Amino acid sequence: MRIGFGYDSHRLVEGRRLILGGVEVPFKQGLLGHSDGDALTHAITDSIIGALGLKDIGTHFPDTDERYKDASSVMLLKSIVELARTKGFEVSWVDCTVIAEAPKLAPYVDAMKDALLQTGIQGVNIKAKTNEGMGFVGRGEGIAAYAVCLLREVG
Ligand code: MG
């Protein structure tokens, strides 16, 4: 078995759609990024890359590469789940936390779970929190996410 850990944060800006866990969440701002800015999916992706010992998400999907401009982060995650499979591992479980002062994400957690399960991961739990008004998340400047995963060798 392998474990992995991932973290990501993106800045909230006007004029972008807010995509988290592969789901569009209605909000006045969205996450700035070369891809769709989906910090939750990036944290999960980085946890799997870490468990595989293959560096980080920026190595696999450089933000200088036009192919990944406005890319669907769920599709990038799917390609990493497939990479894990070619290395002999399945993604048995992901546990993650997304931290946003606003909007309230709890109503979207089930839809995020459904979207993430489309990538081939075997199971996922998502927790949505605020940062109690503290720090950059608390000031509404951005959204952060943490993830851990367990990979199981299936040969
Ligand atoms: Mg990111």
Q: What is the typical, i.e. mean, pLDDT?
A: 97
Order of helices and strands: EEEEHHHEHEHE
- CATH class term: Alpha Beta
Give the N-to-C terminal Cα separation.
Answer: 12 Å
Strand order, main sheet: write it out.
4-1-7-5-6
Q: Overall 3D geometry? A: globular
Low-pLDDT stretches: none
Classify the secondary structure makeup into a structural class.
alpha+beta
Radius of gyration: 15 Å
Give the beta-strand count: 7
| CATH homologous superfamily heading | 2-C-methyl-D-erythritol 2,4-cyclodiphosphate synthase
Largest sheet: 5 strands, mixed
CATH domain topology: 60s Ribosomal Protein L30, Chain: A
Q: What is the CATH-assigned architecture?
A: 2-Layer Sandwich
| Helix coverage percent | 25-40%
Number of domains: 1
β-sheet strand percentage: 25-35%
| Ions and ligands | magnesium ion
Give the helix tally: 5
Describe the overall structure.
With 155 residues, the chain is an alpha+beta fold. It has a single domain, classed as 2-C-methyl-D-erythritol 2,4-cyclodiphosphate synthase (60s Ribosomal Protein L30, Chain: A). 29% of the residues lie in helices and 32% in strands. It contains five helices and seven strands, in the order E-E-E-E-H-H-H-E-H-E-H-E. Strand 5, helix 4 and strand 6 form a beta-alpha-beta unit. The protein is globular, with a radius of gyration of 15 Å. The termini are close together. The model has no long low-confidence stretch (mean pLDDT 97).
